[in-house]
């Protein structure tokens, strides 16, 4: 144990951070409810194969980033690095194949052993959605528009940019793969070791490399768009036409590929320039092959996931907290506790300090953005009265203790 430090790449969410996280999550869930999404909660760990067999043996996540361990029964377990594979597993093992289309949202921690930096953690949090069972481009349009609406509800419309591309159907990808290998093979020695290893297995992955030399090599690589079958091109045209019809601004980024193996057709990312290198806040795509590949019935799917830490950093204004009533006992605290209890039971937020002079307590009330202060002075209490101070108007009056609740609840 290395002292009482948090594990590298993990962090504590203190109340103010949690409030931001919750705001992002709740906003996403509120919007998604209007699209008919319910919540799915899957375990944060799964058998390792759930991820290793689906994310792709050459993906960064599988080759370098998974938290994998043998549990006490000797089973190989992995802390989930992402949400889609677990949802697909739940769909198959839960026998949900009759309930299509299925629309689900998830939220929670994800785990990846990567190099921690701003906006890149080892335990981070995502909120995401999956729509299973719809193979037409209308699903892609709806899922992207829901993401756009969520970002708008977070106040981020002006800060994010939608980039979109198509990875085509199987036939397009096979043709593209061949074109890419033909281009990259003569340049093999200029590539990073990692990209050299991926060249034959999964050349698309080379396009996603973060290595500077690799980026130079792929700058002139052929584009997916040139290898599309007419059907794949038509699918993509329908998606972009739909986004245009919905008034969602986007740019086609012909180099956009997704890090995981199970994607086809639409791939998209919402990016920002406000967070430095970690600019992708929400990313997703279509994964028609995934469930079949896992051993389930062939079922199309599309979804996205957003990084809550990254979105939290972008969100400016949180909704105001309920303004509390400050209760200030100057003598005996018991009458104050009784009053606070009654007001809280009536649904009000009550802030009560237990010590300090009047000035300190008023400062505390102001800091809490209290609407009223109720001051319980000893002489007044002896008469069965308290002072009610309106902190907005700056006025105060003495009222009977037993009328405080009625006054403050408006009853
Ligand atoms: P990146 O290119 O930044 O590594 P990725 O392609 O690995 O992203 P996805 O698997 O698509 O990311 O995850 C969706 C979103 O989750 C990302 O866009 C990002 O906002 C967030 N995310 C991914 N990895 C991390 C991490 N290590 N720390 C914080 N947020 C993350
Ligand atoms: Mg990554």
Automatic annotation (TrEMBL):
It holds the Pfam family tRNA-synt_His. Its main location: cytoplasm. Transmembrane segments: none annotated. It is found in: Cytoplasm. L-histidine binds at residues 82-84, 112, 126, 130, 258, 262-263. Its EC number is 6.1.1.21. Residues 8-335 form the Aminoacyl-transfer RNA synthetases class-II family profile domain. The keyword Nucleotide-binding applies. It comes from the Bacteria. The keyword tRNA processing does not apply. It catalyses: tRNA(His) + L-histidine + ATP = L-histidyl-tRNA(His) + AMP + diphosphate + H(+). It is an enzyme of class 6 (ligase). Homodimer. This is Histidine--tRNA ligase. The lineage of its organism: Bacteria, Pseudomonadati, Pseudomonadota, Alphaproteobacteria, Rhodospirillales.
